[in-house]
Structures are given as C-alpha cells and as structure tokens.
Fold:
Amino acid sequence: MAIESMPLQEQLKHLDRLANTALPLWGVPEGATARLINISENATYLVEAPDFRSILRIHRPTGQSRRGIEQELAWSRALADSGMVLTPPSIAGMNGELVQEGHVEGLSDSRFMVMFEFAPGQQPDENEDLVVPFERLGAIAARTHIHSQRWKKPDPLERPIWDTDAVFGPRAIWGDWRDAPNVTPDVREVLEGAEALVCCRLAAFGKGQDRYGLIHADMRLANLLIEGETTKLIDFDDCGLGWFLYDFAAGISFMEDHAQVPALRSAWIKGYRSIRPISYADEMEIDTFVMLRRLALLAWIGSRIESPEPQAMASHFAAGTAKLARDYLARFA
Structure:
C-alpha cells in the first residue's frame, strides 16, 4: 500500500520507525531518539540525547530529487558562509554525504533524509505584534536576493520554478486549486477571474534579472526562529526560481486577511529597502504576488489534505480566498 493512501496514524508509525532506525547513518550519540515535531510537506523530527540535539527531515517520496536537495543545501550553506543570512547548517552522514536514504517495511518507497544542527529560537505567532520581525524579514529577503544574483548556480538547476505555470498550469506543483475543499461554483467563478488577472499582470511584469531569480519561496512564520533581536531562516525545501517579491507573499502565508498585514507589508518594504531598492512599480505589484501565493496555497491544501495543517484550514480557506480575490479584482481589474 502506498503511504499516501494510508490513514495518517499508520503513516506516522512507519515514519517514526524510519526516523529512529536511520539515526546511525549520522553517528549520533548512543541512545538518541527522534520525536516528530511537524508533519506537513515533509516529516520533521527532533533528535535528542544527553547534551545533543539536531533536526531530522524526512522527505516526501514525490518531493525533490537527490540532486535538487543537494542544491538546496549548497545554497543555504553558501548563504550562511557569506554571513548574509543566519540558517542552521546540515550535518553530513557517516559516509560524508549530506543526503541520506532509508527504507523500512511498510513504506512503498525509500526516503531521502537530511539532518540539521539544532537552532534555538521561537517561531513567531500571527497574533503577536510582528512589525519589527517583518522589518528584519524584509532585510533578510533582500540579502538572499542579492546573494542569489551573485551565486554561481548549479547547471542544470533542479529546483522548482514558482511562476504562473507552476501554480496554474497543467502540471502545477501543488495541483489545481479547483480541486480543493469547498470550492463552490460561486467561489470558482471569482477565483478564475483573479487567476486570469494575476496571469495578465505578471506577464506584463516580466522576469527581468532585477525582479526574478533564486528565492527561498517559503519565508512564512513556521520557517523563522526568533531569539532576542536575531532571526534565523530555516527550511529551504521550496527554494527555486521565482519573483523576488513572492518572498513577501510567502511571508504572510495563511494570514493574508489578518488585520496587521498592511503594517507588515510596510515594515517588510522598509527593511528590504534598507538593503536593496524596490521600485514603485514593483511595490504596486505586491498584491498580485499575494494573490498568486494564496491560490497556490489553496491548491496545496487540496493536494495535502491528509496532513493536519491543511485539514484544519479546509473548511474556511476557499471562502477566505474568494474574499481576497474580490478585493483584488476591485482594485486592479
């Protein structure tokens, strides 16, 4: 039985066994154990032993290729080595490789796995005052974009491409948003109008080198660790080619309709401009990237509905997306 067709609790039993039986691949201290801390796109475990902690990520079987994961790790390491962004490094296995592979009975496929050094800090909450953290996040985003323009990318680059075809095309990365829960005929009609407008505006916006390149693509709150005045950026699993301003849209993922978003937008732009310029024309297109990301997330919920996070949002996300789309169409149509 493919793991995707199993009940979630059965899936987790197999993944827990894999996580714990795979630990010797890294030579962690004897007696170390792995405990699930998040299941979303991938399964993430906290590995603990006396005086030792690390993070283990087990990839989905339909996720990135080995080469693609190695490229993700190469960019995040290059960013950290440059001093431009704080992000915890990956840990090589006993064989010297950063990407390990393992399998246990009950799983239909072997899984790629990566271990990271543990980084202290707290994930911010959307109901906190996030203005100061978002100003810092804007500066972090600007530094990643500057670095991505200078960094010699692997060739071929086996990373996702976050453009309109990736969200709306026949082979969309997360599937068709129309297949998500509670996309009623009325919701579908308004979202199709928003999709058409997003595609039209981004075709005109273009993919110039000052606007488009290698991006993190998932700078949402779940991928930030804040410790005092320091913000660490984690989980480059979605990094790929895309518009630089998509990183702001990803930063407000799942909270696009929150009351403090206008203030967060202003703070992010202020932080970004402290490092790298944003033209007025680019700034005016931020709402388009927010709409693009929101429709992508709606598709993600539909294609990942077996996981707790999509299940928790399934009842209201389509209707909320339609409200955002009506506002977007009213401003730009």
The chain has two domains: 3-117, 131-332. Residues 103 and 291 are 39 Å apart (CA to CA).
